[in-house]
Amino acid sequence: MNAPSLPRPASDAPPIPGVRPIKVLHYLENIGMTGVETFLLMLCESQARSGRVVPAIACVMEDREELQRSARALDIRVIPLPSPAGSGSGLGRKLRSARLRAERVSTLSRLLKREEMDALHVHAVGIAGMDAFVAAELAGTPSTLVTHHATLEWFRQGGRPSRMSDATFWLEKQRVSRAVMPYAAAARELEAHGMPAARVSVVPFCVDLKKFPGRPERAVLPDAPFRLLMAARLVPGKGHAELLSAVASLKDRHPRLKLVIAGSGPLSDDIAAQVISLGLSEVVELTGHLSNERMPALLATADAIVLPSYMPGETFPISLLEAMATGLPAIGTRWFGIPDIIDDSRTGYLVEPRDAAGLARAIDALVSDPAAAARMGLAGQQRARTEFSSDGVAARYEHLYRAGL
Known about the structure:
By secondary structure, the chain is of the alpha/beta class. The protein has 2 domains: 200 residues, 3-Layer(aba) Sandwich (Rossmann fold), CATH 3.40.50.2000; 162 residues, Rossmann fold (3-Layer(aba) Sandwich), CATH 3.40.50.2000. Helices cover 42% and strands 16% of the residues. It has 14 helices and 13 strands. The strands form 2 sheets. It has a 7-stranded parallel β-sheet, sandwiched between helices. Strands 10-9-8-11-12-13 form a 6-stranded parallel β-sheet, with helices on both faces. Helix 11 links the parallel strand 11 and strand 12. Helix 1 packs parallel to helix 2, helix 1 packs across helix 14 and helix 11 packs across helix 13. The longest helix has 25 residues. The protein starts with 21 loop residues before the first strand and ends with a helix.
C-alpha cells in the first residue's frame, strides 16, 4: 500500500512553538450512541488537552442525550444541525428531504465561515457526508478529512448504494485532503475503489489511557471467579449465541467461570431466554445498557474480554482497545479489523467467526492458565499504550489536518 507512514508523536506533547492551534469541526451524520461517538469523544478530549487543536462537533441532536452529556462534561462544544425529514413517502418526502439538505448545507457553510474553521473532519458510516463536502467547498475550508467507520464492502453488500452515495463518494474522491481507515486492508479497499493512494492514510481508533489506566495487581485465588466480559450492543452478528453455547460447554469443567454481558438492544429478550434454556442463570449476568462513564469500573472487575463478532461493518471495536488498556487478555474473531487489534497467542486469541467450539477452547485456555492470561493482559496493555493511545492518535490527526492547510 502506498499510504504514507505517519509519525507517532509521544503523548502529552508540548505545544509547538510558533504554531497556532487549529480549529476543527467534526461532522456526524448517523444517529444514536455507537462506537463512532465513543471514538469521537476520546479524540476530541485528547485534541483539546493537547492545546494544539480546538475541536467542536456538529450533528443532529435526535437520540444524542449521552453524547451531549459526555461532551458537556469534557467542555466540548456540540452544535445542533437541522433534524431529518419526518415520515411519509412520495414527492412530499422527497421535497422535505431536499429542503433539509439545503438547510443543512447552508447551516454548515455559515458555521465554517463564521468560526473560521481550519478543518472539517467528517465521520462516515459507509458513504456519507455529501452535505458537509458541499458546505466545505462553499465556505472555502482549507482542509477536509474523512474517517470511514465502516468498510466500502460492508456498505455495498448491504444493498445501500444509490445515486446519492455514488455522487457522495465521487465528491469525496475529488474534494477531501485525506481519507482515513483504521486498518490497512480497509485502506487498500478504498484505493481499489478509486481513492488516490497519496491521499489515503491508516490511523487506528483509540483509547484514552487516562480513563483506562490499568487494574491494580491482585492475587489470583484458586477458587476466585474468572469474570469474562462481553461489552457490545445486543444486535445480530455480535456472537452472543455462540458465546453462550461456548460457556455452557465449559460450566462443569470450570465452575468458577462467570460471564458478564454488558449492553442493550433488540436481542435482549432472546439472549435472556437463551441464558435460561442453557441453564446459565447462575453463570451469566446481564447488566443492560452501560454508559461510557461506567465502563472503566466494569473492566476493572473483569479477567478477560471477548468479542466473537461476525457482524458486517464491525470494523475496529473500541471495547477491545479499552479492555486491553485495562490489562485484560482478549478473545476475538478473524473478522474485519479485529486481527489488527489482537496479536494471536500474544495478547489473546483469535478464533473463526461462528465457531462456538473454537471459542470454548480459547476461553478454556485462559481460565486454565491464569499466569499465561496475566502475561497476555500485560502484553495487550503495552500494545494499547504504544499503538492505540488517544493522545498519540490525536497527534497523528493533527499532522493530517495541517498537511491539508
